[in-house]
């Protein structure tokens, strides 16, 4: 039987999105194959997610690795085209907003292979973010778009995407969170005991925060101040670690109360997040995961493409502004922070809705 859909993953945030989709495709009889571009390749950034989330081994690994945006995107395109030639699928499914997403979508669209985008329509309206460019362009060349929140539909409408192409499916990343929450590794295990004063989980890797020396230094100084109140548990992204070393700021990561960890597995990170007093992050995924878990989140960005985490969830935007971050933390320590509620369709069933819609769409082609 021929392959109906080629699914693509490349970077860490893709893995938790594709896991429930592959499972739902198997359940609903959608014939799919999985391609890994190799954008992320460290075992801790990739393999561990396949093992913990039960994602099938990729049928193909393009092994492109790291490079500048242009070279990485070009290498993915060059390596991906022959895969489409061999497999001749009906459609390509991409998730999220990483370079692998736009690179493969562009190859498929030019070859007349239909493109399906999961997590479509999110907009930060900040074109300085590489992911924003990836989102806008991927949506423009997609035939079928699945959204995680209703604001995304309005964004797509404004950009001229026909409403009948857009389906509100809910959040597949939250499917994964719900499916694995009971197996999350307790923070007490990962940290060998939870600090008595509680702890903050920190993640930081956006170019806008770590590539500019003054911004990065100010953020680390702020985190050192946070560490006077709470332990700062910081699973550090390889690019952030490398940049701190390059700027001669490694000592700031080793100050009292700072607990540096290597990149964590999904189940370890889920446990750390669930049990945290607060999360400080510039990640898109963690803004949503903290909302789903009811844990206060301070987002170290000036904007978010996920406004529902502000309107309904536990998220607050501070940007890299020290006063705002510390004020927000003080409020959270005093009164527990925003309570929030679970957004519509963040119910663990999003991938099923996508698979059912796709089965019907494929049958009607
Ligand atoms: C990518 C995504 C970003 C996502 C993030 C999650 C794009 C534009 N960005 O950013 O949206 O939030 O993944 O992690 O696609 N590196 C390693 N090992 C790896 C992978 C990367 O050491 O397995 C290092 C390399 O030095 C590399 C750097 O991290 O140059 C950046 O990797 P890259 O994939 O280019 O972007 P991310 O910052 O990870």
Short characterization:
This protein is 45% helix and 15% strand. The chain has 365 residues and is an alpha/beta fold. It has two domains: 5-170 and 346-364, 3-Layer(aba) Sandwich (Rossmann fold); 186-335, Rossmann fold (3-Layer(aba) Sandwich), CATH 3.40.50.2000.
Describe the structure.
This protein folds into 2 domains: 5-170 and 346-364, Glycogen Phosphorylase B (Rossmann fold), CATH 3.40.50.2000; 186-335, Rossmann fold (3-Layer(aba) Sandwich). The mean pLDDT is 97. Helix 1 (12-27) packs across helix 16 and helix 4 packs parallel to helix 5. Strands 3-2-1-4-5-6-7 form a 7-stranded parallel sheet, with helices on both faces. Strands 10-9-8-11-12-13 form a 6-stranded parallel sheet, with helices on both faces. 45% of the residues lie in helices and 15% in strands. The chain has 365 residues and is of the alpha/beta class. The radius of gyration is 20 Å and the shape is globular. Strand 12, helix 14 (308-311) and strand 13 form a beta-alpha-beta unit. The protein binds uridine-diphosphate-N-acetylglucosamine (UD1). Uridine-diphosphate-N-acetylglucosamine is lined by residues 11-13, 39-42, 45, 66, 98-99, 130-131, 205, 237-239, 242.
List the defining traits of the structure above.
single chain; 365 residues; alpha/beta; Rossmann fold; 2 domains; six-stranded parallel β-sheet; globular; binds uridine-diphosphate-N-acetylglucosamine
């Amino acid at each position: 039987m021929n392959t109906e859909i080629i699914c693509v993953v490349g970077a860490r945030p893709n893995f938790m999105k594709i896991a429930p989709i592959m499972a739902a495709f198997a359940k609903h009889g959608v014939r799919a194959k999985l391609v890994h571009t190799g954008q992320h390749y460290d075992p801790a950034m990739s393999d561990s997610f396949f093992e913990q989330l039960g994602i099938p081994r990729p049928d193909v690994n393009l092994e492109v690795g790291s490079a500048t945006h242009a070279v990485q995107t070009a290498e993915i395109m060059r390596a991906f085209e022959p895969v489409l030639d061999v497999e001749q699928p009906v459609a390509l499914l991409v998730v999220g907003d990483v370079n692998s997403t736009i690179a493969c979508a562009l190859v498929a669209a030019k070859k007349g292979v239909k493109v399906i985008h999961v997590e479509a329509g999110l907009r930060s309206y900040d074109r300085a973010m590489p992911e924003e460019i990836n989102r806008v362009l991927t949506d423009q060349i997609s035939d079928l778009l699945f959204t995680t929140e209703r604001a995304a539909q309005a964004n797509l409408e404004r950009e001229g995407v026909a409403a009948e192409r857009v389906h509100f499916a809910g959040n597949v990343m939250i499917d994964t969170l719900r499916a694995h929450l009971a197996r999350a590794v307790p923070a007490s295990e990962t940290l060998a005991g939870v600090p008595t004063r509680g702890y903050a989980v920190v993640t930081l890797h956006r170019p806008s925060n770590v590539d500019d020396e003054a911004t990065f230094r100010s953020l680390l100084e702020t985190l050192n101040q946070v560490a006077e109140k709470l332990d700062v548990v910081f699973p550090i992204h390889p690019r952030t670690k490398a940049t701190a070393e390059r700027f001669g700021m490694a000592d700031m990561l080793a100050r009292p109360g700072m607990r540096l960890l290597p990149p964590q597995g999904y189940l370890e990170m889920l446990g750390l997040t669930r049990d945290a007093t607060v999360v400080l992050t510039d990640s898109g995924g963690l803004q949503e995961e903290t909302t789903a878990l009811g844990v206060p989140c301070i987002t170290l960005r000036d904007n978010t493409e996920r406004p529902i985490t502000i309107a309904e969830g536990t998220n607050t935007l501070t940007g890299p502004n020290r006063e705002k971050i510390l004020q927000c933390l003080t409020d959270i320590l005093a009164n527990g922070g925003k309570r929030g509620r679970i957004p519509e369709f963040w119910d663990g069933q999003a991938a099923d809705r996508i698979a059912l819609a796709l089965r019907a769409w494929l049958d009607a082609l």
